[in-house]
Amino acid sequence: MDITRLELSDLLKSDGFKCSCGKFHHTDVEDVVIGHGVLKELPNYIRKHGGEKIFLLADQRTHKAAGKKTEDILCEHEIPYALYIYPHEDLEPNELALGQVAMNFDEECNLIISIGSGTLNDIGKMLAKITGRKYMVIATAPSMDGYASNNSSMISAGIKVTIPSKSPILILSDLDVVCQAPVKLLQAGLGDMLAKYISICEWRISHLINSEYYCEQVADLVRSTVKKCLQSAGDLLKRDSKTIKNIMEGLILSGIAMSFAGISRPASGVEHYFSHIWDMRALEFQTNSDFHGIQVGIGTVLALKVYEQIPVLQPNKEKALDYVARFQYDKHKSFLKEFLGSSASNLILLEQKEGKYDKTKHYLRLERILENWNEIIDIINQELPDLSVVQELLQTVGAPIDPAFLGFSPELVKKTFYATKDIRDKYSVSRLLWDIGELERIADKVF
Hints:
Elements: E1 17-18, E2 24-25, E3 31-35, H1 42-48, E4 54-58, H2 60-76, E5 81-85, H3 95-103, E6 111-115, H4 118-131, E7 134-138, E8 151-156, E9 159-164, E10 170-174, H5 175-178, H6 183-194, H7 196-210, H8 216-231, H9 241-261, H10 270-285, H11 292-309, H12 317-326, H13 329-340, H14 344-354, H15 359-371, H16 373-383, H17 387-396, H18 410-420, H19 429-435, H20 439-446
Parallel strand pairs: 3-10, 4-5, 4-6, 6-7, 7-10
Antiparallel strand pairs: 1-2, 8-9
Helix pairs in contact: 3-4, 6-9, 6-11, 7-16, 8-9, 10-11, 10-18, 11-17, 12-15, 13-14
């Protein structure tokens, strides 16, 4: 079955899809409702899924945006509920936030509903997992792609980590609410969608070099979703409901694609690691940071600038082997500790398990790279748009394209790029350049 031809509602097939990639694609999301005034339909879905007493989770802003109206609807339909509103505005998805809501959880509730977007959804999915309750989310902004995924992006010991959690059974997006989201959150959603160009490209390259699992149908689902989003993206600042609906659907489909693949590959690559590192530094050193999608949009521009340099490279085996032989991992560890602070310790422990810098593993990767270099270039040319197209689109909607917007110097951006290869065991352009001995030279040229 060609899943790219299916409507969003048809992708929620309860028994999933057997795919030629060898996987059985399935999502735990059962209902997605997007439209004007659909918040009033919430009681129907609560009853459908056996909700008896509801635990509502919100923050100060999202309670104003949709929480109060949700309470009114539940009262009107005589559905009992408990409510927890975070008392502070600068909410982070960390151990403290999860602990706060867990300690205030009402055990009589058998259904959790988060009212919000990224952070609240991540916390809500974690709360649902640890309590064993069913979970729903009422979107308040089309700002990120984690609505449908079965993972949560959390901060643990100062590091952004992806933790298995629980997918919502219902994603409800009332366009009367999300179209009124702050402009920066609208821009963030577009930035997160643009990232999919890089994610699919790097997924294919890793499949070629490392034999990593890859599904063309899932990749094509993401490609078609991005194309649909961008067709009307120019009307974003007008709060055009069709444009925002397309972005909202695209973000939800990206999460479903991650569930189908069982990994985050379809939706994130090196551009997300720029954002993760900036978040980690903000936690450690109180440096600047912004919404995830804003940072990811800038990261996408930076990644495209790097990828522009790759087709003119001619990898040399002796040069690459000499580069890796001279690489001083102890010196690199010192750099990570200085640049990232306490969170570097966990990255160093991860490397002991993953062995990115193992010379034998590098030799095998290098052989595959040299053997398939022309195909790597073909993948880049097939998957990535022109840098100017992405920059123009982001500028059209008023989104930043330069890390200087965040107060970051070229030197800091360069160091960020060096560290992107250490965040996860996920093959990205920074690791490709390290493998061929070109990391510093290309970084000096681009940043």
